[in-house]
């Protein structure tokens, strides 16, 4: 009985502490962070942020810049097929505008 009480109180305490959330970054802040990761050769982290920007900001100038950075990032990660796709996508988009 005492064990259940202690367990219940501990569970409530632990769950209440996990409610705190990190501040969500704006798209511009996320781009700056991704660019910083890229310049520091932290390509996997940069890749995740650039992909997020592409999903959230389709058709914007920021998404176009992210496409180029993502292509360069994928090239550095030796993911050549995906890098080629994004380089082609970038060049096609530039050509159309």
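Q: What amino acid sequence fits the structure above?
A:
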């Amino acid at each position: 009985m005492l064990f259940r009480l202690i367990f219940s109180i501990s569970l409530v305490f632990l769950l209440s502490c996990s409610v705190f959330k990190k501040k969500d970054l704006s798209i511009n802040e996320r781009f700056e962070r991704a660019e910083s990761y890229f310049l520091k050769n932290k390509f996997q982290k940069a890749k995740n942020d650039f992909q997020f920007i592409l999903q959230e900001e389709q058709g914007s100038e920021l998404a176009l810049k992210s496409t180029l950075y993502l292509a360069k990032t994928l090239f550095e990660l030796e993911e050549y097929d995906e890098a080629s796709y994004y380089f082609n996508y970038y060049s096609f988009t530039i050509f159309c505008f």
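Q: And what stands out in the fold?
A: The chain has a mean pLDDT of 86.
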